[in-house]
Amino acid sequence: MTLAPLLELLIFGILLGGIYGLSAIGLSLIFGIARVLNLAHGAFAVFAAAVSFVVIQATGLNLLFVAMLVVPLFFVAGYVYETLLIHRMLSFNRERRIEALILGTLGFALVTESIVSIIIPRNFGVNYQFLPISFGEITVSTLRLLLLAVVAITTVILHFIVYKTWYGKALRATIDDAETAQLMGINFDRITSITFGLGTALSALGGILLLLVFNISPNMGFPITLKVLAIIILGGLGSILGSLAASIALGISETFAGFFLDTAWSNSISLVVLLVVVLIKSEGLLRR
Predict the structure, then answer these.
(1) Domains and CATH numbers, the chain
(2) pTM score, whole prediction
(3) Is 217 helix (H, G, I), strand (E, B) or coil?
(4) Which residue from 14, 161, 208, 250 has the least number of CB within 10 angstroms?
């Protein structure tokens, strides 16, 4: 085998990992501020993909334009989801709170997947034809380069929000020490709701971009959640750069495992690789 196909696989793996990274960063921020393992995180990604697919089929609009409409809607959905469901559960006593959060978020995920299955009872995806770009023997899809650019731009914007804005400073202060942050005048409930909105919007964007990579199954939400959870464990809680590095490792391992072995093995092998690295370096690739 020549080097060119391997480089093409590497590029695809980086792209796939970058998309996973968007969802992973969202869940990392949510868990960091609220200590809530949102089991519906992947379901939001699939639901956003389904909504975008239906809108595209009905209107013929471009996917990236649809994403600019759908992602803000899922920010609102995440905000409302935290306000009406998660916030109430966080007020329970410790034992009841843990059970309620697990059952509540899992139940919400199952309901969401059922709705998607009713709307679209099959695998779905979007296919756009772009002229490829050649670099010698290497041929790269223009669409994949465009998706990489979207992921990179989103990551830069997110980094600016987290480290340069008032919200970002309040978010990081709350993650470090919630009680002290509240004594300093930071509204914990508001910051938590906004973070859920931001995390859900990132998951939605990741799901929408996956439409251009492969067909999505209505019941794909929980596997996405598991991958994202493995990523934030490996990358380090609250670390944007660490989550991105871990997600790229996952994307590359999935891609090469699917090519050299079988697509049915790719998910299992990539997760095993992540778990082995976690055992070796339990604090994550990059600590916050």
Answers:
(1) 23-126+134-280 (1.10.3470)
(2) 0.90
(3) coil
(4) 161
